[in-house]
Write a sequence for this structure.
């Protein structure tokens, strides 16, 4: 708040700092990013990165916890190209989960992580039927669902599936789904990253469709 107030009327928290305030990215500390609409007239201050943005108009700013800040949609637009692509995708996913407007030109595939995104890419590359993404079944939200085939796929990241509670939840979820008549397949991040052909082949067997072979380079 102090950094915004230091630049006076019209200054707002923006870019990565705004994303952290909205809960779209994890706080990392360091430089505070502030935007103003004027092209000139205010000097840079230590510990603050000042952005001069003539396009900063009334519809792109609001308040959160009493702090003037760019809207989620404007924040996502500002982040594009200023943070690594994986962080931009994370911010978009978090905004979507929170129900924030994403703004024009921002398309999502319903995934909640790069691991899920990579799994969808395997399905597309193999020519497999597209699944539903992050679907509620009973008390559980499953990563991927082929409804007609009664197939559920869970993608497991070590970060989010380690520990006793996560282990117990995974087994309770699988038991409930099996009782409801769903087959469950689990693939971890190593399999998705290093063995996409095996993952696709396993899915093809369950779905009754053979993965499309990758095109081979012509022999000379």
């Amino acid at each position: 708040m102090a950094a915004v107030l230091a630049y006076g009327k019209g200054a707002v928290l923006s870019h990565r700092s705004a994303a952290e305030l909205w809960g779209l990215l994890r706080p990392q500390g360091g430089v505070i990013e502030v935007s103003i609409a004027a092209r000139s007239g205010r000097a840079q201050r230590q510990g603050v990165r000042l952005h001069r943005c003539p396009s900063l108009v009334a519809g792109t700013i609001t308040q959160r916890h009493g702090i003037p800040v760019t809207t989620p949609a404007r924040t996502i637009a500002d982040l594009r190209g200023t943070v690594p692509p994986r962080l931009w995708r994370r911010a978009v996913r978090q905004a979507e989960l929170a129900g924030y407007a994403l703004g024009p030109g921002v398309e999502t595939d319903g995934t909640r992580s790069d691991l899920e995104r990579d799994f969808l890419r395997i399905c597309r590359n193999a020519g497999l039927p597209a699944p539903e993404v992050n679907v509620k079944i009973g008390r559980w939200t499953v990563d991927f669902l082929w409804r007609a085939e009664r197939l559920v796929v869970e993608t497991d990241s070590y970060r989010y599936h380690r520990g006793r509670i996560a282990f117990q939840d995974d087994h309770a979820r699988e038991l409930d789904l099996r009782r409801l008549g769903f087959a469950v397949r689990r693939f971890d991040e190593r399999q998705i990253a290093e063995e996409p052909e095996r993952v696709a082949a396993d899915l093809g067997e369950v779905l009754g469709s053979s993965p499309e072979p990758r095109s081979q380079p012509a022999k000379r």
